[in-house]
UniProtKB/TrEMBL annotation:
Source species: Denitratisoma oestradiolicum
Record protein name field: Aldo/keto reductase
UniProt xrefs under Pfam families: Aldo_ket_red
Record bears the keyword Oxidoreductase: yes
Key words, A-Z: Oxidoreductase
InterPro entries with a match to the protein in the record: AKR, AKR_Detox_Biosynth, NAD(P)_OxRdtase_dom_sf, NADP_OxRdtase_dom
One function term, GO molecular function aspect: oxidoreductase activity
A GO term from the CC aspect: cytosol
CDD domains associated with the record: AKR_AKR9A_9B (cd19080)
Residue stretches making up the NADP-dependent oxidoreductase domain: 15-309
Amino acid sequence: MRYKLFGRSGLRVSELCLGAMTFGRDDGFWQFGSDSAESRKIFDAFTNAGGNFIDTAFVYGNGRSEELVGDFVRADRDHFVLATKYSSSLEGDLSKSGTSRKNMMRCVEQSLRRLKVDCIDLYWLHVWDDTTPIEEIMRGLDDLVSAGKVNYIAISDTPAWQISRGNMLADLRGWAPFIGIQVEYSLLERTAERDLLPMAHALDLGITAWSPLAGGMLTGKFLDGKGEGRGQHQPMTDRQRTVTALVVEIARELGCTPGQAALAFIRQQDRFGTITPIIGARTLPQLQDNLGCLAVTLSPDQWQRLEQATAPDLGFPHAILQAPMIRDMVLGGQSDRFDNHRAP
């Protein structure tokens, strides 16, 4: 496992992040999780491979995930980069959900107790609620950093314009800025390339990708059409089948598993800076298979085949701005001679 700086910070994280959403099981919503013994095996396999970046959330396992992660890191707490999130809730109470300062303060105190730590390394806003003013969010998160309860802040599942607005406000007022974003990103879901990933590149934000295997579809295990009852609730679309079949074909060429080939594509996608896949697993063999992506490298031809087969429709205004006629008009007829790459 190699390491890198995360976004506009000195935070050093492993090139893969362990997602702990599957840690813990209850009798309600979170029945799909792993028990504590299997969760421990998954955690140990990840750390033995050199991983130090652990991602959980207030809501995962109805709180059990944070408790287990806290137990697992206790022997060497400072070795790990602990990330957790707030805003989502399973309690069905309006006052106990959302991104307000009130809920933020409630959640961070509970997360600290569950994790059994004095400080959270990376604190994520989990899901944008479209109601709380960005000023309230940024000031509240800055207060957590100033109080020493949080080292860095980041944001997940939020429109690009709100994230950039928040960081501009933080920069102007001297508050702690977001240092990273978390987005859904896989060969079956690349629409983050419209605005979120270019924004992250321009603002020097770390990028983590959740569901990099598209809920397991990219492993090829649902191609037989028998997905229902095995975690796949909806039938695969024609496009999903076509892309997954291509991943399986390229995996055969490489002598690796389809999941490893799909993760390799994300790891080699450097147009927007380094993207860190969040690998999650319910069983130890699943985690071990994911770790195998570290030894897989797609050839330029293989990468290009996947790139072309999964390229997203960027829509307006991106499509028109890339049109040769428009580029010639705005670049004085010299679009073929002009390099518009700008480093962050």
